[in-house]
Design a protein that fits this description.
There is one protein chain. By secondary structure, the chain is an alpha/beta fold. The chain has a single domain, classed as Undecaprenyl pyrophosphate synthetase (3-Layer(aba) Sandwich). Helix content is 42%, strand content 15%. The protein has eight helices and six strands. A six-stranded parallel β-sheet has the order 3-4-2-1-5-6, sandwiched between helices. It binds 3-methylbut-3-enyl trihydrogen diphosphate (2 copies) and magnesium ion. The site of one 3-methylbut-3-enyl trihydrogen diphosphate has 10 residues, from helix 1. One 3-methylbut-3-enyl trihydrogen diphosphate binds next to helix 1.
Length: 236
């Protein structure tokens, strides 16, 4: 598709949902669904950054996903480790900086050290940002922000009366531009705690496709839909 005359979201969010259903509908294990989701993610990210989108936030693992069977959580942790250590080097080639949001230090140490490795490897990149939400919950992000600001107030670095939206933003996990467009695959129509502060005026799109099948063509359709939306931000 020709992207020449299309408006692009500056910050795109993707809630990658439906890996499990994709797999069970084929008689495969949920882990195989996650593997296929990861395979799809790599090609999709190349496509998205190539089209000129600057910032992408990915919902990879929620704080609530820890409730899943140990076998599935262990598989996901191994998969993340492999991706960050071995398979995401293409992002550096695309000049994309990778950052993480979430309570990463609660994860197994080899996962957060792989995440730190990727952050370090790409920290000089300037053409794009990939924010990976890992062990992430929007409510915990707000809790953690309140704790940081409270400490600043207690230790005299800021007065409570000087707290603004900008101060809040600076104390979230990452200081990113507001989300413009959020795609959630698999037909579920909810946010499940994804970047609830940053998505205040985001447009949402809920395609039925399970994430492993969410192709470049489907992404083109999402962008066409985004171009039909009239954003008002509370104005006329
Ligand atoms: C999304 O797919 C991936 C993660 C939450 C890690 P799901 O695993 O939620 O797939 P469904 O929703 O069960 O199909
Ligand atoms: C949201 O999907 C989390 C990720 C995609 C990582 P879930 O599958 O966990 O959400 P619910 O349980 O359907 O709300
Ligand atoms: Mg799901």
């Amino acid at each position: 598709m020709d992207y020449m005359d299309l408006k692009l979201p500056n910050h795109l969010g993707i809630i990658m949902d439906g890996n499990g259903r994709w797999a069970t509908s084929r008689g495969l294990s949920r882990s195989e669904g996650h593997r296929e989701g990861a395979r799809n993610l790599k090609s999709l990210l190349s496509y998205i950054f190539d089209k000129g989108i600057f910032c992408v936030s990915l919902y990879a693992f929620s704080t609530e996903n820890n409730k899943r069977d140990k076998k599935e959580v262990d598989y996901l942790m191994k998969l993340f480790m492999k991706l960050f250590k071995e398979e995401f080097s293409f992002l550096k080639d695309l000049d994309v900086k990778v950052v993480f949001s979430g309570r990463i230090h609660f994860l197994p140490s080899d996962v957060w050290s792989a995440a730190s490795f990727l952050e370090e490897e790409t920290k000089m990149c300037k053409s794009g940002i990939l924010n990976i939400c890992l062990n992430y919950g929007g409510q915990y992000e707000i809790v953690d922000m309140v704790k940081k600001i409270s400490l600043d107030v207690m230790e005299g670095r800021i007065m409570a009366s000087d707290i603004t939206k900008e101060v809040v933003l600076e104390n979230l996990y990452q200081n990113l531009p507001p989300l413009d467009f959020v795609i959630r695959t698999s037909g579920e129509k909810r946010t499940s705690n994804f970047m609830i502060y940053q998505a205040a005026y985001a447009e949402y799109y809920f395609p039925e496709t399970y994430f492993p099948d969410f192709s470049e063509k489907e992404f083109d359709l999402a962008i066409l839909e985004y171009n039909k939306r009239k954003r008002r931000f509370g104005g006329n």
